[in-house]
Amino acid sequence: MMMGKPHDMTEAHQYRKFGTRIYDESGNVIALHGKVRLGDRVTWLGRKQGSGSHDDQFQIGEAYQVCFIYPSNGDVELQGPKPWITTRAGDEEYRKVQQTA
Predict the structure, then answer these.
(1) Which of 97, 89, 101, 95 is nearest to 52 (CA)?
(2) Which of 3, 31, 43, 101 is disulfide-compatible with 22, CB 3.0–4.6 A?
(3) pTM (global) more than 0.70
(4) Which residues contact 84 (CB under 8 A, 6 or more apart)?
């Protein structure tokens, strides 16, 4: 059984469960397997529960970059229109932007 935190998505990690946290060498979450990675662009679907202090800065249907992944539950932090504007998004509040060929 492999111990420690994996740091990439090589063949050894190809059978991970969808959404499993992937860590770098420092122990920071860099991806949710098969779902989203730091730097990916995702579409904001709007707040489903609660509220955030900067929700008014995020437009439903617009794409924002993932700037942080929370290790505790896999929520992501989205970078807003200015560097100091971010919002936390749960699993049902975003979807990955599809890449075009």
Answers:
(1) 89
(2) 31
(3) yes
(4) none
